[in-house]
Write a structure and sequence with these properties.
The chain is of the alpha/beta class. It is built from ten helices and 13 strands. It has one domain: UDP-N-acetylmuramoyl-L-alanine:D-glutamate ligase. The strands form two sheets. Strands 5-4-1-8-9-10-11-12-13 form a nine-stranded mixed beta sheet, with helices on both faces. It has a four-stranded mixed beta sheet with strand order 3-2-6-7.
């Protein structure tokens, strides 16, 4: 069966200088879920401008409902992405974007009509009061839904937003740099996550999970795979590398991983299989520019291989 996933947060343009590609972690997750055949509703906001029109076109291309898409006078979100020449990237986040002004009443109305099984959210769209209040209202209204926090720490996100988000979440996804930041904020020691298998890393991670009542902690490790810790003592490691035939960039790889994790949990896949498939899919996303494939055939091959 499929989960109905409400995805809350930013839709924007990733500006690479020579290319402007639709992005934003929530938008990436929603498009991946839709392309893989899982019901998703994105609650976001864009401007009445040319970039907003481009993003609206992505809703149509992926068959995403536009019920949660709000419009306003603010500029459509944009992030300047700087490649470092080694496959990595840095983000330069612009202020006062449309996704900072998501309206609570409209968001709650579409949430109630959609009746989600899971709510996915991050932190960037909570940097301003309006969207922060809208998310709080959605979470209050979707009391029975599972809550998946994809931390996605970015410039402009205050620690208090992280703290409140962790209190709201059942499952939390972080990369190793974000886990290191959480250790610095909330733990007694800061073990180096490069030694992810150390007892110290697991002990501090589990202490933090206990303090925030987190059911599951998902840590992505790039080419080193991923790790999942459950509050029940579960630990699952996925360390197989899945490099693409030609590496382009890692933009959206974590979002692709999150989408397949949500899909796999909804479909009842065993956790080791969920992590293995999410890791393989995220590796494949590194083979093209931006977070989603230009060709729908990319998704068809994964759906076919997974029997979706």
């Amino acid at each position: 069966m499929a989960d109905r996933v409400l995805v809350f947060g930013e839709a924007l343009l990733d500006d690479f200088g020579d290319q402007q590609i639709p992005g934003g972690a929530p938008f990436n997750v929603a498009r991946n879920l839709a392309a893989l055949g899982n019901p998703a509703l994105l609650v976001t906001r864009v401007g009445n401008d040319a970039p907003g029109q481009l993003l609206r076109g992505e809703f149509a291309r992926f068959g995403l409902s536009a019920e949660g898409l709000q419009h306003g006078a603010e500029p459509t979100g944009r992030v300047v992405v700087e490649r470092d020449g080694e496959g990595g990237h840095r983000f330069h986040i612009l202020a006062e974007q449309a996704y900072d002004h998501i309206e609570a009443a409209a968001a709650v109305d579409v949430m109630r009509a959609f009746s989600p099984d899971t709510v996915y959210f991050g932190t960037l769209a909570q940097r301003e009061p309006a969207s922060r209040a809208a998310l709080a209202a959605v979470l209050d209204g979707a009391a029975g839904a599972a809550r998946f926090l994809d931390l996605n720490l970015r410039d402009g996100v205050d620690e208090s937003v992280v703290f409140n988000s962790l209190q709201q979440a059942a499952i939390v996804k972080v990369n190793e740099q974000e886990l290191q930041a959480l250790f610095a904020w909330y733990c007694h020691t800061c073990p180096d996550t490069m030694d992810i298998d150390s007892a110290a890393v697991e002990a501090e991670a589990r202490a933090m999970m206990h303090n925030f009542s987190i059911d599951g902690l998902l840590v992505t490790l790039g080419e080193r795979g991923a790790m999942y810790l459950g509050a029940d003592g579960t630990r699952v490691d996925e360390r197989q590398a899945f490099p693409p035939a030609q590496f382009v960039d890692s933009v959206g790889a974590g979002d692709a991983f999150a989408a397949v994790f949500l899909l796999g949990r909804a479909r009842g896949w065993e956790l080791p299989l969920v992590l293995q498939r999410a890791n393989a899919y995220a590796g494949a996303v590194c083979g093209f520019a931006g977070a989603v494939a230009p060709d729908a055939g990319f998704y068809t091959q994964w759906r076919d291989s997974w029997g979706l």
